[in-house]
Amino acid sequence: MDLERAAEAIRAGELVVYPTETVYGLGADALDHDAVERVFDVKGRDRSNPISLAVPSVPAAFEFVRVTDRERQFMAEFLPGPVTVLCRRRDVVPDVLTSGADRVGVRVPAHHAALTLCERAGTPITATSANVSGRESVRRVADLDPELADAAAVVLDGGETDGTESTVVDVSSDAIYRRGALADEIAEWLAVN
What we know:
This protein has helices at 3-11, 33-43, 58-61, 69-78, 95-98, 112-121, 146-151, 183-192; strands spanning 15-18, 25-27, 52-54, 65-66, 83-89, 103-107, 125-129, 152-155, 167-170, 175-178. The chain is α/β, with parallel strands linked by helices.
């Protein structure tokens, strides 16, 4: 797997397909307006549907989001892992990523290649599934939509992924917006913490 070439591509504003513990992701510099626009374009994603960002560790996330003590406890419990946590974004996070919302989804993938890519890129990367919107998420590189495969500067093949989407949660409002991996454990944590 050519992680250094993928990290260079992200730094250059290009798109990368990368494996995670859930499904394959489409990565770009999450702080680069034009790169994020390309992610929306390639996926055919509605601009009102925000995109999350991935970072290599929970402490790394704090440069890009403001968290409460409870959110910090939740992140310490469930990240890295198949969870997307909605947090108040800092000004450095562009409107295009969040569709103008004041919260952004944060992922710390529990996957060595994804974490290494985040680390080497030196910037948060987009954490959205590598598929055309409305189509099934991709678990194997061979199943990539041709549009995405053609648009990506680098495709990292990490074999077959688990396929269960991340659970999307807003700890501040106890809302689970998408039930995926660990959803029951997350609901239980929210109920007792």
